[in-house]
Amino acid sequence: MSDLRFIARSFGPYRKDVALAAACIFFETCLELVIPLLMSSVIDDGVLARDTAVVWSRGAAMVGCALAALVLGRGYARYSARAAMGLGANLRREEFSAVEGFSFENLDRFETSSLVTRMTTDVTVVQNAIVTGFRPMMRGPIMLVMGLALSFVMSARLAVVFFAVLPFLTVALALIVRRVAPLYRVLQSTMDALNDELQQDLTAIRAIKAYVREDHVTERFGEVNGELAHTATRTFAGAVVNTPVFQLSIYVSATVLLWVGGNMILAGELQVGTLTGFMSYVLQIMNSLMMISNVFLLLARALTSIERVREVLGEKPAIASPAEDVAVREVADGSVEFRHVDFKYRADAKRCVLEGVDLRIEPGSCVGILGGTGSGKTSLVQLIARLYDASAGQVLVGGRDVRDYDLAALRDAVGIVLQKNVLFSGTVRDNLRWGAPDADDEQMLKACRAACADEFLDRIGGLDGDLGQGGVKVSGGQKQRLCIARTLLKRPRVLIFDDSTSAVDMATDAKIRANLAALEGVTKIVIAQRVASVKDADQIVILDEGRVHAVGTHEALLNAGDPIYTELCESQGIRTGAQAAVAGALPERGGDR
């Protein structure tokens, strides 16, 4: 019932169409139920009594009822289609809005393929249930109740036959629904798996071709596709049993009624017209029972999809802005501070990704972050823009806890070039305007020059150059530079580069660093794998297994003989103090030997 109430609320402004569709069905059904009575009167009072006037008047009434039912049926089709399509649009909009409000923590709980299925296939299932199920859901009970009542009026003895059939039909329907209903959830989960495989294969199509793994991928897709086909076959094979069971009941009932009714006519207890009208009600009643059974099967599948949609809509965003009257809407400066910060991605995780982090970054300074893979570098900077919340401790930006800020204001003040570069379909201009929707061409070109993206702009068509889907028409290094330019257009107070120059050459990296150093009043935090990218930073932070191992300048860390930093420098060919001393002690080459 809660699912049905949820759907009733989700119709929104289309509730009027639902009411009109229901009214059309009600009056159409009433008219159809009147026709057998008129037909019985035509036979008994007109044909048998040889009264032509009765035949014409009752016949005209039957035609009028049929035409009126046709008009009402067309009205139902119009209103129900509008209501169903409107419901689908509302559900997709609500789901998309909910997903847009999710934090990274919420998104970690759903597969992308599952979210796509819930917004498309599941919503379509609900729409189809409304379009194809609303009519029988309304007509079935009305025809059943009124048909039974009218059949009792015509012949109570014949009506008793129905009560012998109803228990059998009820048990059969219960068994079918009990078997099929759980399979619908399995079917939708299998659809998720198929979408996941398809999305993965299409995204990685270049890698698949590079490794000549088309046969392997085809085999893997075939397995998932076969599993979906097998699950669908099992599910619908159980559902279609409903039809022969009800047809058997209809034929058996009709045969018994004709036999009993024929004997009653021979005995003079029943008229031919009454039996004819009664048989019409028999067919209507049995059809109504079949409608009701089909509605149960439709509801079983639709309710599964509704539950999946509600799971998305019921997911509470893990991160939200504080109340409007207390939210801070302006970041005072670019200072960043971590106070005793612990962080884990899941509350039930055994170990923290970050543990006991204490760090102060002054406004306008440049800070480099180094560390091995999995040391927590990306996790650290994601806390600054509140993409995740710290599990313990405080993260401060501009002297205020990040939880005090309005999310939009905080993220406008913190620009992040993510580790995974993302460009959208469209032109260079379209992508750059994500950073500043009102930026003019001069501002965009200036940002491109700062990011060294101007070097290749002309080759791809300038600001109007089309990047293709996901930026497939540019290289990895060009993607990185365009992403940097897009972030620079935001003019943030804190600028974070998460290993965002890893795909550019050393000379271009040096140019970008020089251009960034010229930015005034902006705190720059650079995550890098290359020591050369952060060697000139005001301070360098070394992370090791989620803890701050050391903080200092390049010279200070070398002079202190920090083992991790020294090892990084030596592995990348950067002279340490010991190497410089050895080089100074060696005799100069050249001259006489």
Structure in words:
By secondary structure, this protein is of the alpha/beta class. It contains 21 helices and ten strands. The strands form two sheets. The protein has a six-stranded mixed β-sheet. The chain has a four-stranded antiparallel β-sheet with strand order 2-1-4-5, with no helix packed on it. Helix 2 packs antiparallel against helix 11, helix 3 runs antiparallel to helix 6 and helix 5 packs parallel to helix 6. It starts with a helix and ends in an 8-residue tail after the last helix. 35% of the residues are buried.
What's the structural blueprint in terms of helices and strands?
Blueprint: H1 2-10, H2 15-47, H3 52-101, H4 104-107, H5 112-119, H6 121-154, H7 156-203, H8 205-210, H9 214-239, H10 242-266, H11 272-313, E1 336-343, E2 354-361, E3 366-371, H12 377-382, E4 392-397, E5 400-401, H13 407-413, E6 414-417, H14 428-432, H15 441-450, H16 454-457, H17 476-488, E7 494-498, H18 506-517, E8 523-527, E9 539-544, E10 547-552, H19 554-559, H20 563-571, H21 577-585
Parallel strand pairs: 3-8, 3-9, 6-7, 7-8
Antiparallel strand pairs: 1-2, 1-4, 4-5, 9-10
Helix pairs in contact: 2-3, 2-6, 2-11, 3-6, 5-6, 5-7, 6-7, 6-11, 7-9, 7-10, 7-11, 10-11, 15-17
